Predict the 3D structure of the following.
Amino acid sequence: MISSEPVIKVGIIENYPEVSGELVEKFKITDDVIVSGAFKAVIDRGEIVLYGGKEIELLRGKEIIFSPMNGGVFTVHDVIFGINFHWERKENQTFQGSLRLVAREHGITAINEVSVEKYLASVISSEMSASAPMELLKAHAITSRSWLVAMLEMKKKFSNLGIPSQRTQRSDSELIRYYDREDHDIFDVCADDHCQRYQGITKDISNAAAEAIEITRGTFLVYNNEICDARFSKSCGGISEPFHTTWAETPVEYLMPVPCSVKHRYSPLQLQQEAGEWILSSPEAFCNTTDGNILRQILPSFDQETTDFFRWKIRYTTQELSDLIHKKSGIDFGTVLDLEPLQRGPSGRIIRLKIAGTKKTLVVGKELEIRRWLSQSHLYSSAFVVQKENDAFVLHGAGWGHGVGLCQIGAAVMAVEGFGAEEIVKHYFRNAGLQKLY
């Protein structure tokens, strides 16, 4: 395991035809060239051309590195975040550390290199409101730090083993696909929700977030002498989903189904009748809350637009659903006749869904691919039951996200109810312990 604080490479944007911004402090780009102020980078014949103020060409090449002279503060314009999710938007974002621009086949990729603890301070501030309970911030800091460094360690371990970036099993009757973080090749994590939401120092790092990072500095969830791959999502919907139904089919002992409650034990929901009854009910759970004060404390303003996260409903006419699936899958099913869940995980999330149409019938999985196909952005989760009404399909669903590991809203309610950070993380990550490594 590690013994010192790592540096992380964060992909801010990918494949932009043009990147512009401002170097708030001085940066060195060659031994002889020091720059600051406005900049713009464009692709020209496979190379990046860097312009300073007044469109003066400063440098060109396949890669341009901005090394900070001091702390290194810079702003990048028009960064898109929440990509393909229902809250997608664009804003200018400010970062600290070094900046690297890389020419790729389809445009420019911008990468921020920053220390793990500074990265985490931004993540916690981006994921949670500054007024969130301290025990939640500490629990989230431990969780995010563990996931991040476990991913770095995994990349080192398997760097020469040729892990494929595309995880797809395809046949004439079935398409099973899942997505994971190590798909990124020239950086460690992206800055968006696909990995962890990272907005640099765009938003003020709250005193509470900074304190939570400092108190838990170097503290990790550990299992069997390895740092835990500690996943999290917004709302599990009442019970968490195990790792192996969502990603690689290898069970992870600390990412098993956990009730979002300390009062009740929930049976696994793989059977269709059990799952249907569960999803159509409103069981007691930490994440079953409509307390506006709690939600305002733990959700950034744009996440507060989502209020029906625990139980939700969406309705499509048959034509709308048929057109949507054709658009999102690239497969012409004709008119969709039926959506039939074939396999569910313990939280009720669908792992394999059969889509039957007049031209094509196909089984699709895993949970994220199902969510991609059944929404213009991403369906809240794949824990849903299907009701057919005349010429329409109604999806009744539970939870927000993949549901694996820490339930953010559930953890927030636990913190409000007086649970400590260690109690919270050990509730969701069973069998794991805490260890300070630097």
Residues 134-157 form the longest helix (24 residues). The CA atoms of residues 12 and 137 lie 24 Å apart. Residues 232-408 form one domain. The first strand starts at residue 7 and ends at 16.
